[in-house]
Write a structure and sequence with these properties.
164 residues; alpha/beta; Rossmann fold
Length: 164
């Protein structure tokens, strides 16, 4: 256990909250780290008259999303490698993010998943679902969930300071 850790990322600070725990485990157990980003295919309604234009737009959107994800993961991969970790990065595509993550975990012989929760509750969780919840329920390996906390953005912070 803890020899190959998967860390799902999506470009957000909330997802990155899982990195310190993954790094701590990897340090103690000399683990390999796999950073994984699941991109969802873009959806647009196509009309018969302009189908080729929309198809081209979809292709360009998908390509841009994939490039952004690769660049983001490469930056984290480089940083972790400089710290001495064995790291690989993978971008995969899937309609359902949790299912795609579970597939990667299975195919890459991941033995531990470290991921953050985005802290949705109530109606938001019902509408959007919980990737972390589904991964936790269906993963065949241990899952360490890190509760991510949203930080106030700079504008909100400045507004708060201005009122004090």
């Amino acid at each position: 256990m803890f020899s190959h850790i998967m860390v799902p990322l999506d470009g957000s600070h909330l997802a990155e909250a899982a990195l310190p725990a993954a790094i701590e485990l990897a340090s103690k157990f000399n683990s390999k780290i796999s950073l994984v980003w699941v991109i969802q295919p873009p959806h647009l309604i196509m009309t018969a008259a302009n189908g080729s234009v929309y198809a081209q737009l979809l292709t360009e959107m998908r390509h841009q999303s994939e490039q952004d994800a690769h660049n983001y993961l490469r930056a984290h991969q480089g940083s972790l490698r400089q710290q001495g970790f064995a790291v690989n990065a993978q971008v995969t595509e899937g309609e359902n993010i949790a299912d795609a993550l579970l597939q990667v975990a299975s195919s890459q012989e991941i033995d531990t998943i470290v991921m953050s929760t985005h802290g949705r509750g109530g109606l938001s969780r019902w509408v959007f679902g919980s990737v972390a919840d589904k991964v936790l329920r269906y993963a065949e390996v241990p899952v360490l969930l890190i509760r991510a906390k949203e930080e106030t953005n700079d504008w909100e912070h400045r507004q708060l300071e201005a009122t004090v």
